[in-house]
Structures are given as C-alpha cells and as structure tokens.
Amino acid sequence: MSQESYLGYTPRTPVFVRARSGQITEGVFLGGHRCKHDPAGDMFVRCTSRCCAAKPWVLKDEGGSVYNTTGFEGHGGQPQTKKAYKSIRVRQPPGSTPADISLREWKELASRERYTEQLVGSRIRVFWPKMRRFYPGMVASFSKRDGRHRIEYADGDTEYLYLAAEQFEFGWTVDEDRSQPLPGGRSDIGQRPSQPSAGVPSRRTAKATSAARDAAKQLRKLMRVDAAKTALPLAAKVENDVCQQQRGCGPEQTTGPPPNRPSEQQTDPNAATAKPPLRCVFAASNGRWKAKMVGMGANGETVWEELGRFDTEEEAAACYDAAMRAQDRERSRKRKLNFNEDSDGEPAASELPPGARSRPNPGVAATMHGGSAGPPIPAAQDLYLGMDFGTSGARAAVINGSCTQVAEARQSYAVNTTEEWERALWLLLEDLPAEVRAHTAAIAIAGTTTTCILTDARSGRPLAPAKLYSEAQAEEYVRLAAAIAPANHSATASISSLCKLLCWAHDPAFEQACSTAVVLSHADWMASLLHGRLDTTDAHNAVRLGYDAEQETFPAWLTSQPFAGLLPRRVVPPGHPVACVTPQTAERAGLPASCMVCAGTTDSVAAFMAAGVEQVGHAVTSLGSTLAIDLLSATRVDSAANGVTSYRLGRAWLVDGGSNTGGAVLRRYFNAQELEHLSRRIDPRQPSGMDYYPLLDPGQRFPICDPHLLPRMTPKPDDDVQFLQGLLEGIANIEAESFHMLATLGASPVLKVHTAGGGARNQAWTTIRQAAVGVPVVASLQAEAAFGAALLAQTWKRT
C-alpha cells in the first residue's frame, strides 16, 4: 500500500435511519469518517428538520440539510457513545433479518467485511477530533470477534478502534522523521520508545491533558448552572498550596489570594469563578501545613488570612475547627442575626491552638430557629425554603441569596400517613416567622425514596394508604417488573416504586380507581398540596419508577404497558420550576402569590447536596433512623440485586443506596441520654468481639436487597457498653461493605466520607467507622436534607 493512500468508499444507494430524538431523516450515505483527500468518503445524513437546518455545521443543499455522521450523532445527544450508536437505527435492504440494526452494529459489520488482517503491520495516523490533530502509529492486530483493530501509537499508547468509523490515513505523517521508520511487523512493536521523537505528537500526553481538562469541566458543570452562581463551588487548586476545601457560599464572593500576597497568586484559571471555602487547610512548601480563613479586605476584596502553621494536616484542621467553634459560640452569645451578612464576632484567643491568630470567618451562617423574631428584612431580600419529610419527622430550612440559613423549624410524627404528613407541612409553615414566609421566593421538598401514594388525578385525594420506602412488595410483582424491565434494573427491586405501582395496578380493589389515578412520590404529593399540580415529578424520584436518566424519558418498555396511565406525565430536573403556590395556599400560609414551588428530590440526595460535596470519590453517609449512602461517581452503577440506584447530577452520577440498619435499631435498646453516656465509655481501639448485623425487622435493602434477611444481634452481653459498641461496629461494617460493593460494581472508589444525621456527633462511632471504611470520615458542615432542598429552590432563581 502506498505511503499516501487512504481508505474510504462511497456507496451507491441511501439507507434510511431514525434518530433518538424521534426525528425521521430522509437518508444516510454510509462510509468512513471524512478522509482528507476524499470529502465523499464520509457518512452523510440528509435531514429535512428545520432545527437541523439551523445548525451552523449543516450544509444546505438539495432542498434539505446534509451533515456528517459526527454532527448527526452529536444532534442525537451523546456523540461517540454506546448509547448513541444504539439509538441510531440503520434500515437493512428489503427482506433482510433483522429489518434494521443499530449504527454500532453496522460499524462492526463494516469493519469485519472491509477492514481485515491485511491492514496489520501498516503504518497509520489517526485523527482525534477533540485534540484536532493526527497521531502516528501502526495497526498491531485485528480481532475477528468484534471487528476492531489494535493501534499502537508512536509513544507506546494503545487504542482499540473500528477503523470504519475513524478518520485516518496510511503512510508517512507530516511530523515523522522519515529516516527512522516505525517497525513493520508485530514482532518488534514493543521496541518503540516510551516517548515519540521530537516533533511527533504524543497520544499519551494528549490523553492526560484531555483527562485533566474533562475533570475540571465536570466540576464546573456539576449542577448544570454557571460556576459563578452555583451553590456547589469549584475546588480551588493552587500550584504549591493544595486547598482541602468544603462548601463556599455567597455568589458575590470569589476565591484568590489577596493582592499583597504575591507568593500565593498562582491559582487555577478557573479560580476566578469559584467561591471561597469555609475550611482551608494547605500543604506548605516546606512540608508543614497551614490553616487559613477567607475574609473581606478594607476595599471589599477577598483576602486570605493565615491562622498558623503546623506539623500535620490534622493539627491545621483542628486549628480551623477550633476557630469556627469559638466564633459560633461568640455569635450565639451575642445573638446577632442578620439576613444580609454574618456576625462580626471575634473568637476567643484562648480557644485557638498555639500559634494561631483569630480571624472572623464570613462564611458561617447565623441561624434563627423557628418561631423566633428577627430584624426587619430588606424589601429586595428573597428567601428560599427547603423542606425534608423523613421517616420520623419533618424539617424546614430557609436560606437567603448567600446560602446563609436564616430560619428553621421541626415537626415530628409518630406514624407515616398522608394525614400526618399534611399536618406537619402546615405546622412547619406556621412555625416559621411571618416575615420569613412573606419573603419566600421559592420552595423545594425532599421526601423518602420509593415512598409512593396512589392519588386521584383530579382531586389529589389519596386513594390508598401510602406504600413506604421500606415496604417490600410480594414476589409476584417483583416477577412482573423483572419481565418487562431490563435485567437487574433498579426498578425491579422489591421496594421499588415500579413494584408498588404494579401492586396497585393488579389489585382488583383498585381497578376502577386506577383509571383516574396517578402514582406520586412522597415529595411530589407534598408539593401538590402547595401548587395543586398532579402531573409532574422530578427526575430523581422517577428513577425507581423506571425512568431512564441518560435518555431523560420513560423508556418504551414502560410506556407501552397497560398501566402506563399511572405514570406522571411530566418529568423535570430537580430544582426546575413547577408552578406557583395556589391562592388558597398563599392565603393560609402567608406566602407571596408569586412564590414558586420547584421540583424536589429524595431525602438522601438532598442531604448530599447540603454537605457541599463536589469531588468524584467523595461520599455522604446519612446516619438517621436508617443508613443512607451517596457516592459521587464518574460512572453510572445500577443493581437491583444490591439495592443500588444512580441519579444524574450534572455530568457525574450520584450512586445511592439505603440500608434498613441505622439509628432506629439503637433507639430500640437505648434512649438519647443512655446513648450519649455509654458512647463516652467506649474505647474504639479495642474491638467488642461481637459479630452483629443490626436490623429492626427481617429484610435488607442495601448493600444486598433481600426482604427475608434476618437480623443478628445475639448473644447479648451483660455490659451495655460492649453491647452498644457491637451494634455500632455492626452498622459500620455494613457501611464498609456497601462501599466495597459499589467499587466492585464499577463505581468510583471512595476517597472520603462526609457524615450527616445525628450519628455524626458520636465521636466513638466516627472512629469505629473510619477504621472499618479505611478512608477519612468527617462531619458535614451542613447535615440537614432540608438545607439541600433549600439550595434546590435557590437554583431556580439562579438559572
């Protein structure tokens, strides 16, 4: 084959395809991606859609629009992914079986038919659109099984490609040193240098650069809102000082060292749009650690204030934590409440570690408890209300535009019924100061995962008792779900919302009622009491109904079923505006008529958002009545057998699992005072010797989904301290098993665990958990799911 030859072909007849978006194209000419010397060697799509014709990359001619396969797949939503290749169907010639195949299958066939072993040993250069350049290498081998070629690049990097789908050329490259040809056969492929010669592009370097760029982009767009406005800030990276930060608040604030500190101005290019962290612990160049706080300079600029330098990271973190605690106590003593900015209280110098200087931290929120009176609120001050309806009670949190919590309220209920939830909703609103309610611009609600209510679609009246989050359905409904859903889909678990819907749909007692009913999640039904709409759910609560978070729609295997009328007709992202409160709600609760009710989320996702976690590999464990684990992962993981569900969170995935173990087991044996007293006597360095699996009743949801799993809490020692330690160790082991299982399924490995819920205050338990999990375990700065729901309400105003 000559040095300047290339591969490509031009078929004679068009083949019709169907795009994922449902738009029908006129035809497609099948070929390789565009070759440099032959524009006709690309795959072209002729599309009559006006929206396609308006795209800047479209070539207008012949009465329609023609553009290449890269643009066509991009228009489908997910270019160059398995999902995209499967979503575009290529219609086969008449009489063929099957009638059509996916674009991915066609490419595999094309590779096997046209690009075979004859290419092995050929020198090649492959074009990568993301890097906008060719990379030299050689075809090392060919797999008949899947039709892919193994490409060895000049720097030793390896790729497996369908050459029918790539833009490439054979022969010498422009940048190659022709006096040093690449090996010509398989035997000496491994003799290439680890780095290419000067002037030759390195694919390995390009991949590392691309990965770093993608990681930064993923953080910037984690919540799909502008980085300068998002409630989840970027991680500010410094060349010599790596910031270990948590949440930053206040859209008007920006990170960066003060002008008079030139040695610390080598910030990341994205730092200008990030927000200052509340906790700043830096690795100094001399091996020591320093603690800093962010404040405002005399002219309103953001400045770094160093608290001190220490030998270990733990000492620096303790310095910061001590400063925070001292400042909080001082603020509580002064009782200064302000809706626009924080108190200027100064922490007591005696409470800081040696060598640390006190400095007020502007990021700490002053809290006004429900019912207490506050100062007048400025007329332009918008507030955002989040409510969380959990297993044993409901909470409300109100924040202002700077993410500062200005009010809160709590209500408990003895039983989980719709009547108790509705009563708690109105009492929560009544407990908030009237001035706070009058300035509430938006509301969002979080509810327990998979709790469902069969609701009359016209009146909103519940037609049956609610099916709770932990309520496993009969085996027959699990089999029905498994028969229609993909294998191991999270909607096929016995506690899934889909199984509960099937139970109602196949119950003769509800046959007539189901003709005018809709199944709502816990959060949906609570929100309907405020805005009156019964047709909308959020994308997180819809996942356990079978909603496809990647395609952002209910799949055909679900919508084609006779019970599809029970599904909500509208699915929107969490935080998306749904409707304003009804006039009756506005009058009863003292809310503005313009108050917007936004789509909510699950309680565990809301707790994750409240913790301010933004890095892949970081997790939030909620230690409440039950144990909930949420891990931010770069990959999606779903497993009905393990009770695992993934929710889309920007460009990452929030992998979620909820166990039936937790604080409810502890409360069966000990009250709050006993738990506190006995926990102080536990020595976590000495194991209890107990092998417990703490559950209230038979049945587990996560890390294994087994409705018949029996608890194991015997033998019970006479010493209550040893018994409590055994229970805490048992719950910690379940948590550790959960993270191990998630990693086995393909999720990002856990790097750090943030703790929310009442269990976060138990220091002995924290030490036990850290030993079991094997990574740092810290308390979340914000532990309430209601705070996370308030952040969701605030995103509506920001977008």
Q: What does the model show?
A:
With 799 residues, the protein is α+β, with helices and mostly antiparallel strands. The chain folds into five domains: 17-109, no CATH class; 117-206, Roll (SH3 type barrels); 221-351, no CATH class; 383-604, Nucleotidyltransferase, domain 5; 613-780, 2-Layer Sandwich (Nucleotidyltransferase, domain 5). Strands 16, 17, 18, 19, 24, 25 and 26 form a seven-stranded mixed beta sheet that branches. Strands 29-30-28-27-31-32 form a six-stranded mixed beta sheet, with helices on both faces. Strands 11-10-9-8-12 form a five-stranded antiparallel beta sheet, with no helix packed on it. Helix 9 packs across helix 10 and helix 17 (720-745) packs parallel to helix 18. The longest helix has 26 residues, at 720-745. The chain starts with 16 loop residues before the first strand and ends with a helix. It holds the Pfam family FGGY_C.
Summarize the structure.
This protein is an alpha+beta fold and 799 residues long. The protein has five domains: 17-109, no CATH class; 117-206, SH3 type barrels; 221-351, no CATH class; 383-604, 2-Layer Sandwich (Nucleotidyltransferase, domain 5); 613-780, ATPase, nucleotide binding domain (Nucleotidyltransferase, domain 5), CATH 3.30.420. α17 runs parallel beside α18.
